[in-house]
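#struct-help
A.M.: can someone run this one for me? Single chain, 421 residues.
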Amino acid sequence: MKVGATLLGKRIAKVKPRRGGMQLVRLEALASFTCSRCAQTKTARSVAVRGDALLCNACYGNLQASHTGHDQPSTAGTGRTEEASVSSSEAGGSQSSALRTHDPARMVVQELDSGLPYSVVNTGLRIEWKFHVRAEHLLHGTCPVPAEMADRAAPHEPLDLTFLRGRHRIRVLDEQKNVRLRVRGGEAQLTGLTWQPFVLPGTRVSVGWDLWRKLRLAYTPLDAPVVFGGIVVRYAYDPKIMTRELAAFDARVDRVEELVLIALRELGYLDEKGRALLPQEALIRNTIERAESERPARRKIDAAIERLLSRGILTWEQGSINAAAMLHYPARHRETPVPLLCYAPMLRDAEREDLRDDPGAGHGTSAHRVAGHLMRIGHLGKEASTEAKAAYREDHSRAGLAGPHEIPRGFTYVREHERGM
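D.P.: on it. Structure tokens below:
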């Protein structure tokens, strides 16, 4: 498999080295397929290829954890419990595949929701759906569309949008014209949107389309604004998506602590409160492997973790791993317990000072300046443009900052600009 080739009708954006007779590839867009190992239908960008067979990311990670590259019989199939397998291994000192799947550095974390529309309702005259805004939507000005609309709307025909503040007192926030429907590789989306400044990754959007008429996108305001991880949130949101995808914004890559937090938030297990959790060995391994330039030494990562623990930014929690090397939190009965490092975004009610300093206080009606900043795009399979590289080089040099004047790999640069109406 090569970058630029197609798989499942999607273009391959990234290819990892072949391991154990398998090769993990990342597609430019979501694709649905049936995993040949667990027989479940998956919708994801990451697909493992083994000959003519396709495997999901979870099964790929499980096989890699076993250090074999071949399926091993599960303990359930032999009538032995997971506890018995671990006890036998500890007593005899054997290195069974069942025990190796519990290697804390090689566990599997289930992916977030696919990012596709959900709660789709088609009355014949009106189509409604919901979705959560992702970083990719904000970066490219897009909006996911269900198949029900893609089948009825004319591609490339201009559409008009109205953005609403929903719930009890409905208010128009913005109107936009000439948004277009694009279908590529079986994935439909609206393109050409300009999202309001207050919209964050994780914000829930309700969409309604009266066939061949205007689209309405509505945000549901919270009863009262909150501060989530230091950011004011005014509308209904998904804490898991917000934790993971806000790690990609305003990232600083010159500190090992930041590398640790980004790895934990982007790869860790996420609970309903938006807490991100990983075993220390898995966090260390991924922090080293994901470093875009010079890889930090393990001792520096250990020291960074200790500093984060001492300041209360990270805490210890107890989780568990099942026979398929899948991580769970809280710990489940009859699964192997494992200590987890936990990042918990601070959640509190917004105070008057928070709202006064919030750039989204005007709900998109007043202009404000946005400082120049790095934005992680490597996880989207993208690279910085020539213009972004030149802008970073110029601004970095003008500011008299030390170090190379080049954008770190996997990032793009957004220049200082004005947002709002």
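A.M.: thanks! Residues 67-101, 362-370 have pLDDT under 50 and may be disordered.
D.P.: also worth noting: The longest helix spans residues 298-310.
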